[in-house]
Amino acid sequence: LIEKNKLNQAYNAYHDFLKKNPINSLALDGLERIIRRRKPKYGKQPSGDIISSLVALYDNGRFDEVLFKCAKLLKSFPTSVPILNLYGSAKAQKGLIDSSEVIFRKAILVAPNSADSYYNLAVILHQKGDWNRAYEAYQDTISIDRNYANAYNNIGNLLQQRARFEESLNCYEAAINAKSDHIEALKNKGISLHKLGRLEHAYVACLEAKKIDPNDAGVFNQLGILLQDAGKFEDCLSCYRKAIKLDPSSIEAYNNICTALENWNRAEELANFLVSLKSSFEPLPDELRFYEALIFHKQKKYKECEEILVRLDIGHIHSPPRK
Fold it and tell me: Per-residue confidence of the chain (323 residues) as pLDDT tens digits?
């Protein structure tokens, strides 16, 4: 198809193949050949100092200023891919998702071989829940740059969401090979291993992530879940408490403590724990209010229990999924 210059058909054929065979090197080579045949549309470009000043504003969270400056600069430099990508990213940070998608697509039209533009587009599509188009854009990213660790990691996440855990592991390994200290890929690898029932391997992956960043609350929360499933009650609680110490806003860790106390029939401790949280949360988050309803139910305070269940739109007491 490529030799016959039927590039769109070839492009779609490679993507169809990659949906069943993630990160296949031959298919990625074919995608790269197609993408590199597309002609860029470069015009006048800004200086490096201008780009650096925009990046500094973005890194400091000054997104309104980035939007204002980018909009102004694009009048003089309409084909600047760095400015387009910063403009689209700032819009995404402000919640303007549809607008950011349009800008990233423009960046790709200007420079079809820009891995960053494809990756930015993929992230937006991922956020919008457009699985197929996000998957394709991530594949386009790694066809251009085979060391784009974040793209491999996010392909793994898409596969993980589809319960394709074995295939997701290959993507996380590719991310780690591209960037050995990619902590998110290590944590996600641990999740997929856990889903596959390989608890010991999952635990090792979490420990490797902990070596990279011993202050990552997510790592301790994940370790806690593994220890809980291994029946190590006190150890799992210790990990959840460490996660909360590192990130006091981690509803996930609070929720998992409640789940552990409930699973081990520690109703009194659960009740006391919920009371202690009311000094930090007013009102309690919905994820935790379920456990408050559970305690009321055990205390035969059915009216109070029912009021919470109605608010949560839950018909009856049951164990919610662990976060």
Answer: 656 566 677 777 877 888 887 777 777 777 777 777 777 788 889 999 999 999 999 999 999 999 999 999 999 999 999 999 999 999 999 999 999 999 999 999 899 889 999 999 999 999 999 999 999 999 999 999 999 999 999 999 999 999 999 999 999 999 999 999 999 999 999 999 999 999 999 999 999 999 999 999 999 999 999 999 999 999 999 999 999 999 998 999 999 999 999 988 888 899 999 888 887 787 788 888 888 888 888 888 888 888 888 888 776 655 444 44
Q: What is the largest CA-CA distance in the chain?
A: 75
Q: Which of 138, 119, 122 is nearest to 130 (CA)?
A: 122
CB atoms within 10 A of CB 91: 23
pTM exceeding 0.90:
no
